[in-house]
Design goal:
five-stranded parallel sheet; 26 strands; 27% strand; single chain; FAD/NAD(P)-binding domain; alpha/beta
Amino acid sequence: MKKLLVLGAGTAGTMVVNKLRPRLAEDEWTITIVDRDDVHHYQPGYLFVPFGEYRPDETTRPRRRFITNGVDLVLGEIDRVEPERHRVVLTDGAELGYDKLVLATGTSPRPEETPGFDSDEWGRSIHTFYTLEGATALRRALERFDGGRLVVHIVDYPFKCPVAPLEFAFLADAYFTRRGMRDRVELVYVTPLDGAFTKPVASRHLGGLLEERKIGVETDFYVEQVDPETKTLISYDEREIPFDLLVTVPLNMGADFVARSGLGNELNYIPVDHHTLVSTHDDDIFVLGDAADLPTSKAGSVAHFQGEVFVENFIRHVEGLDMVERFDGHANCFIETGNGKALLIDFNYEVEPLPGKYPLPGIGPFSLLEETEMNHWGKLLFRWFYWNVLLPGKDVPLPSAMSLLGKKTEEVGA
């Protein structure tokens, strides 16, 4: 009996075990998935918690509910992977052997890596919405906030859902407008990039929206420390940005066991072949989702498109055939812009986000790089889609590779 072991029962891990179980004979393969607890988080929902649009309990459900029959769920902390022995050791000493291993252990915010975040101001004037606890505390802080300078800040790239800080800035603008106090709030967006986003075409569109909403932008800002006493961000080039309320995206890092296992880079992300997702360290290890060191977004859509490629390749791989499917870095993201509208971007390793329609060329119903109410509804409906289609591993009638059909390619290099 051969053993497939999957570490991480988040988006990527759950999807692929549900897709693989019907396709791997149960008398030939066991499938085991490991995570620290039985709570699955709908992380895109964190963005809406601070503004009172989602309750915290609307973002979590039991993991077991979404894992198909025939897959064993093991709850425990991972201590290390020992590739040479084909085994994983848990912190309680339990050992799990494998023939093939999938690492889908994600990424997480590490505020302790930035001097000053570990002060008494964390949870008072310094917040993040990248954890459920943080988003809940930020909701209370926004309710108490009666005006001043609110700074939305990114420590460094990469981090999960790279459009989320922009969304927070847009939603904050709408939130304070609804409360009749926008004129008492100075919004500032602080980024280490030279523009609003990593992709130039999208950056121009998003930068224009920030300007329209009178949200200041501070670029090329690499934070060295935060002075909690003066409530000031200080960069390596000695620029200073004061704040009354700071909403930060801390440094993100992969799981700690990756370092102990010698599998990752300095941020604990795991180098892989960009197209097959095979670890460069070991041919029996695949890496999916945010855990992989790839030049594309760390986002749920990426995990979905990766998963489609991985499943087809894995079936061929275990049958001794060449892996012919190639992941092209495909990502798409709805970007909430406030007031019941949103943008949509669609891109891959090589192609910029472009205007057009998605997913049907010329029809949509979603519009690319354009604020529409339909895009906003797409964002909200994604929660149902996530719980009922994506996680259970049901077939989605969309290609995993990005298509240029319906896109205005003349925008490239404009």
